[in-house]
Model the fold of this input.
Amino acid sequence: MKESEIQSILENLIQEENFLNCIKNIDSIEKLYESFHEEDKLPSFSIDYLSRKKMIVAAKNIVSLLGSAQIITTASKNISLERKEKLFPDLVLFHEEKCKLIILEIKRSVKTARETLTEMLAYDHEIRNLLPFLSNFEIVFCIVSTDYSTLLNHSVAGLITWESKQILCLHARNSEKKELELEIHLPPSWTSFGMSNLPASAISTTNIVLYKNSDDESSKDAEAAIFYAASLIAKEGDRNNSHGFVIVWRDSWKYFDGAADYCLIVGFINPYSFLPFAQEIGAIDASQNPLGQYFLEHSNNYPSYYCGEVVKKGITFLKKYFTAHIEGFSNWIDDRSKAHQVYFPMNLLRHRAIPLRVELWGALGDFSRELIVHPGFEKHIASKFPQGVLGCEDPFVAIPLIDSISGNTKIDDRGFTCKTLFDLGVSLGMLSTLYNTAINSEKDDLKNLPASITWTALDIYEVLMELFAQYNSSDDLKKCPPLIKFNIDGEFEKSLEEITSLVDWIFSEFLQGKRTIHRECFNVGLIMYPLLDELFSGTLPEKNRKSISKRVIDSSTNILKLIATECLSEYTATESIEIVMGTFSEKYLDNCEVNFNKEALLSLVKKVSDESHLSLYHDTLMDLIDMFTIPINYRNFSSQKLSEYKYIDWTWIREEILGRKRNKAVFPALRINSMGRVEIIDVAKEVYFSGFKHINLEEEFIFVTSSSSMEMAIVHKWNEFIS
Done:
């Protein structure tokens, strides 16, 4: 079918308002779009799905216009205001009710694919010449083509993902009746990086430190000015297509004269961090690619240097009130470190900064706004906080969101591990002491207590949300976990009472039944917390220190004995035994040789020093015991029937699995974990993989169904889900 024939057919279809009838797969796109708004499926920030999701949204939005748009001009008319210039779009449509223009281009041959985007952008510019300041929502694009080359696919994907253009691609084919048949085409987004969140070093941070311009107190308008400056920074970030955030925080230290009461921490997604991480985990191999080879060698030298450009206007505005300097470079994971993870714990944000407001921009801003208006936000998040209505700027929305995206997560995808419960106990123990201290302090002399309370509460935010989720999807949990309002300027007794109620609920309800080891880890966390933070250990009476230390040492000894017994079990995998024995020898016994029998192991446990018991409990010991302990999970969504999982984007899953398999070192499979999250994992090193080496991923795939205690692998045919 010639291009002119396609044009003639489309013109007739549009005039008869019959365009939508020849597009085959509208229903599948609409179902995928609807899945983004499911009440029980909160949005997730998937790097590899980011582009695909924007394409689905653009396709859905444009398809909704095609049924009743009218033709303004066809390929025979020049739309240029200058007679010497020739600009002939195939079709320009207008939807009167929604006031939206649609530029439609038809491409029949591979040769003209190179011209498609050039022409469309030229027409776009000319229409904006007639109608200045049109937004990207008011002018959209539709490409009808018999072929989508690599160049055209990449160009469209780039414009949709990074330039926020609204583009619909329709693949034109001849039907058996020799009629025009169209199918919505979603261009392949990009080579999968194999990551569901950002690499650990991906968010670079720096501080904008403010100093008073005079000895006088800062203007009463200073706080409002700082909030406005943060907004300026975010708008400048959006304008420049960067991605990041700025947190305005009040300094509770005031540890030298001249310092202002406020600071800003600015975070940027560092684009140079992704490639080395994807290469390291085996998701891609860029070592033979000239660009990849260069950036693999030099990426560590390139933090995100555009920070100065994005904050420039904000700093210029702040100069009316302060002297402002950019000081210190770090990353978000280090900024969120706990006291026992750093050398100078009292320098941490958690004991100094009271976050007041957060502005997000770029992909982070888009995601935060999508989350806040999602139907499930009120049900699953806002309703669990007595503070009231939460917005994108609220630290209790934005900071957990940044934590989640950056991989600073507290929940194992199998459920509540011993380490998760220990950490929860530590945080709740800290909060109890902080509130007790606040109750016994003068209200105008709380010093850094509000900062410590806020960040410790933020540490357990994700865990609290998961406790509510487990309650909502379980018949075994009869009582709802209590709500907690983390007050920082009054009503401290009420907050302490709510925390005590939560601790009681965890013991009586969540850890009910034979949860001995989980109860022990949670209980030790409640007791041990003063030894993990100088804020508490510095004022701890020696008698209390000795009592706590003895309790921890006894617990550590018993758990090590339990691990030794598990290692001798005939059911324990050899690989697990090797890891445990190696760790035990290196960490606890200074690389002493370990004899593999019960008497020898139990004898060696007795030789472990008190210092090792105390220093290794919170990380090494918890990691070891979790190798032998089934996590607690009251909501097990796992099912062997894939038909029970709604709204899976099967075409994208297949593309991802085939794309990742091009790297010979991995063998990708689909997994739905016990929390109900869909993900693609590498099963090449799993013990069960030998039985699946023969499968042809072009035709079939491995489905791994997970529960808190086991995984099961099943082979499915693609044609069961993709027609």
